[in-house]
Design a protein that fits this description.
Layout: E1 4-5, H1 7-17, E2 23-27, E3 40-41, E4 51-52, E5 56-59, E6 68-76, E7 89-92, E8 104-107, E9 111-114, E10 117-120, E11 130-131, E12 142-144, H2 152-160, E13 165-169, E14 172-179, E15 183-184, E16 195-196, H3 199-207, E17 211-219, H4 223-236, E18 239-243, H5 254-260, E19 264-270, E20 272-273, E21 277-283, E22 286-291, H6 295-313, E23 324-328, E24 339-348, E25 352-356, H7 366-369, E26 373-377, E27 389-394
Parallel strand pairs: 1-19, 6-7, 14-17, 14-18, 15-16, 18-22, 20-24, 23-25
Antiparallel strand pairs: 2-13, 3-12, 4-11, 5-7, 5-8, 6-10, 9-10, 19-21, 21-22, 23-27, 24-25, 24-26, 26-27
Bound molecules: ligand LQZAQKY5 and molybdate ion.
Domain MoaB/Mog: 175-312
GO biological process, one term: Mo-molybdopterin cofactor biosynthetic process
GO cellular component, one term: cytosol
């Protein structure tokens, strides 16, 4: 049974079956890379009160004429409660709370000190060098939204806004099974009939930001043994991914295994190249992706059909791939009726250009590993000439 779907149909099917994870509460010390489960509001105004932007003197400029001579009556270091200015000037540090009664600050280097007095020659205006309460953020402002990924800058912002414990989406649990009697781990002895397991590293690299990954090892093409491992792996995870055995060879067991472990197979082939074979289905809320064995085919499938929905499951709002536009530097072959993912390089100079790699052969991994982008030529477009616009995604 083969079920062929188009690229867009495949995406719609996967999208409709992808559900989001629930939340857990963590501290911001563990928050980098996590996805917010709720909008985050400021707990207080920032600045928290009117604060001095500099080391200087807090003064009241109402009714003051310049040059002005004022007595230093007190000091206001950062972190101390608000002082009161009734007359003269208060020596204030950067970040110090502007005293009640003061309405401007003048920098140390802009006054002349004369004993307990300062002389201000240049006129100072009301509000000078004061950071006013709430001018950056007001209590209750939503500053970060549900579904945003927290990078270090946003984690620091949460700290700034007074948040310590936060709700984030639970991480997606993903199991990876690599299949194929020919596959050898990098540390295993090489043999002429074998191939080294690069697919594991492609998947780990792409998934790591969004998921907790369990690797169930590499399985020889033995149906009974494979079923046991796959069955356990789908129980233990939200998403199960397999590599290899997705097409039509005698030992291409993925489809059979998926059926046997209770996956409702939705499709087995798409109209993309490289990577036509993709066995996708669900077991209730769990998703199964049977990716093709060739690393280039696996990578393209993962970028196009897997990662966006892992991001969705992880709670990320903007989970779909965003394709940008570039100008082709050379004629680039593609076939109508098929979506071609062309490996190559994007260069950003005066304009953004895409140059296809020297080969587009599926079995050639070097050419995709040394590329920084995939151009996508959709099914109704066909071959494009140099100078034409193409969509691309960075990889
Ligand atoms: N008669 C047909 N043969 C093939 C078809 C077809 O439609 N009819 N489709 C071809 C297409 S398209 C692709 S893509 C490949 C992929 O199919 P499989 O998923 O069955 O891939 P395998 O046979 O398991 O592996 C292919 C090849 O990839 C290398 N490989 C496998 N695993 C790894 C790994 N973990 N790390 C690195 N490289 C790996 C290895 O060289 C395998 O020989 O099928 C075509 N055939
Ligand atoms: O589509 Mo397959 O990936 O040609 O090799």
């Amino acid at each position: 049974m083969f079920i062929k779907v188009t690229r867009n149909e495949a995406k719609e099917i996967i999208d409709s079956l992808t559900s989001q994870k629930y939340y857990e509460t963590i501290t911001i010390d563990e928050a980098e890379g996590r996805v917010l489960f709720e909008d985050m509001k400021a707990k207080f105004n920032i600045p928290e009160s009117d604060k001095s932007a500099v080391d200087g003197y807090a003064i009241n400029v109402d009714n003051l004429t310049f040059p002005a001579k004022l007595k230093i009556i007190d000091e206001a270091p950062a972190g101390e409660a608000q002082k009161e200015l009734k007359e003269g000037a208060i020596f204030i540090m950067t970040g110090g709370v502007v005293p009640k009664g003061a309405n401007a600050v003048v920098r140390i280097e802009d006054v002349e000190k004369d004993g307990d007095y300062i002389v201000i020659k240049k006129p100072v205006k009301k509000g000078d060098l004061i950071n006013f309460e709430g001018e950056e953020v007001k209590t209750g402002d939503v500053v970060l939204k549900k579904g945003e990924i927290l990078d270090y800058k946003k984690v620091a912002l949460l700290a700034n806004l007074g948040h310590y414990q936060i709700k984030v989406f639970k991480k997606v649990k993903i199991g990876i099974v690599v299949t194929g009697s020919e596959v050898k781990e990098p540390f295993e002895a090489l043999d002429k009939a074998g191939v080294k397991n690069s697919n594991l590293y492609i998947l780990k690299g792409l998934l790591k930001p969004y998921a907790d990954i369990t690797y169930y090892g590499k399985l020889p093409d033995n149906l009974d043994e494979m079923i046991k491992v796959f069955k356990n792996a789908i129980e233990e995870n939200d998403i199960l991914i397999s590599s290899g055995g997705a097409s039509k060879g005698k030992y291409d067991f993925t489809k059979e295994i998926a059926k046997q472990i209770g996956v409702d197979i939705k499709f087995t082939t798409t109209n993309i190249r490289p990577g036509r074979p993709l066995i996708f289905g669900n077991k209730d809320k769990k998703l199964f992706f049977g990716l093709p064995g060739y690393p280039a085919a696996l990578l393209v499938n993962a970028v196009e059909f897997l990662i966006p929905y892992v991001k969705k499951a992880a709670g990320i709002v903007n989970y779909q791939n965003e394709y940008k536009k570039a100008v082709l530097t050379t004629k680039t072959k593609a076939k109508e009726g098929r979506v071609d993912f062309i490996r190559g390089n994007i260069e950003c100079d005066e304009k953004v250009t895409f140059t296809a790699a020297y080969t587009q052969q599926t079995s050639n991994y070097l050419s995709i590993a040394l590329s920084n982008a995939l151009a996508v030529i959709d099914e109704n477009e066909g071959t494009k000439e140099a100078g034409e616009i193409v969509e691309y995604i960075l990889i």
